[in-house]
Design a protein that fits this description.
Elements lengths: L1 H37 L11 H5 L3 H5 L8 H6 L2 H7 L6 H11 L6 H16 L1 H14 L7 H6 L10 H8 L1 H7 L4 H47 L7 H13 L1 H4 L3 H4 L12 H13 L1 H14 L2 H25 L9 E2 L5 E6 L10 E5 L2 E6 L5 H17 L7 E4 L3 E5 L12 H17 L5 E6 L7 H17 L2 E6 L4 H5 L4 E6 L1 E4 L2 E4 L4 E2 L7 H7 L4 H17 L5
Parallel strand pairs: 1-5, 4-8, 4-9, 6-7, 7-8
Antiparallel strand pairs: 2-3, 2-5, 9-12, 10-11
Helix pairs in contact: 6-18, 7-18, 8-12, 8-18, 11-12, 12-13, 12-16, 12-18, 13-18, 23-24
Length: 562
Amino acid sequence: MEYLIMLAALAVMLLAVFLLEAARASRQEKKYVRQLYKSCETLREKKYDPKRYESIDSYYRRHPEQGQIDDITWNDLGMDDIFRRMNYTLSASGEEYLYYTLRSPRRETQKLDHLEETASYFGAHPDERVHVQLLMRKLGDTGKYSLYDYLDNLDYLGERSGRGSILRDLLFIPFTLLLFYNLTAGILGLTALALFHIVTYFREKGEIEPYITSFAYVLRLLDVCAELEKRPIPVCREEWEALRRHRHAMKAMRRNSFWVMSPGRGTAGASGSPVEILMDYIRMVFHVDLIKFSFMLKHLRGHIEDVDGLIGITGFLETAIAVWAFRQSAAEGYCLPEFTDEFGIELVEGYHPLLENPVKNSILARRGVLLTGSNASGKSTFLKTAALTAILAQTIHTCPADFYRAPLFYIYSSMALRDDLGGGESYYIVEIKALKRILDAAAGGEKPVLCFVDEVLRGTNTVERIAASAQILASLENCGILCFAATHDIELTDLLKDRFDNYHFEEEVREGDVAFNYRLLEGKATTRNAIRLLEMMGYDAQITQRANVQAQHFLDTGEWRL
């Protein structure tokens, strides 16, 4: 009786723990869902594994298109930070598709219109949005690597067949029948065969183990798409038709997949479940999971494009939600771009989306723009602002500005270059190659081209820099390229005044300090602050005084003297 009471008490305790844990999990889930309805900001609070981030461009690399943002421009503009700023995705598919979207400016408005339609739909239908987000959280990630890394490496497994395991499994039949005629021989035969299977099992299991992650993701992808299919989104009819087609083509992969994907597979019942323990020994003795894996591998190899299609659909849905969330988080506001065939850019109150309390600027550019101004006055930030606005307009149909109108450009930059130590190239060589690629793009038919150049040819001497810079910038204009260029060489403003419009930033000196208002002004710069900054940093007065005299002498005579 005492034992029964103890067992009953233990059962009650276990039930209480189970109910408490279930209640806690339910509360957490409800809180998470409320956060999704209220704000998506918590979704950006994620850590990026360096290994995983190296492969985040896998979908982009697998889908090359003309006019995609190249590595130079991506790095110049700090686009990794822009990606992180708007990464409200919950799955690897969404994350990689968002990255691909930001690197793929559209050359036609149809896809941008569809993205706009989908993002607006999710904004107006929060229940549908949260439903998709919860499914994407269920889909999850792929660990340290992209699914495409695993898919591309399937060939390393070679041709695998379950026929050998099936034939050996058939040997259990005659040894079982032998038990009725010679018990000893039958037992010895069954034991030897089982031991051989167990020994070879762990070797073969070790070979396929790294690929289980990819198989698990594909199966989750199929499950998530099955759930999506039950709740169609009216603005995504084509996606749903493709989703059904791809999922139907892969339905054989899901059949009996529990033999491969069960959590206790090959661990001698690590889950503790009696049923799982039994299934695990069945796997080891009969190689059921290895046989099924061979069939799944063959099926997956024949349906890579279907997997890619499902990743594209789920990734597009999450990207549309990320666009909506990014807009909701834009404290400084945003606008939808207007596209036109008229050459030039009209930007009203544009700002850099990563800056707190940014200074907004406006410009109407029908030809090249030459920016001058003091150090740290805002030239580079304005170039990045204009470039980012153009890219975001053509990728996520969202501009950090009050108004934006321009053609659909091919976009390039040459801004944050550095010496290529590994390739043995100096800064100047790297720079002229970067500029040449812009001219080559226009010559190859990529028009219209929009380019941004910060400090033209800074890697060489003054005389040749000014001469070569003037000719290169003139060539850009002759090729029909809309160029925004920043320079400290004030001489270029006069040399190019018939081809480029001059704008500048300037500073104010207040009580021995230099202040910048970061406002874009028409005309060329008329102030300099390099020597003034030396004075403010406490350099010897003789150095700064002589520098001022020397600079003024050059301005008056065109000659240098020490």
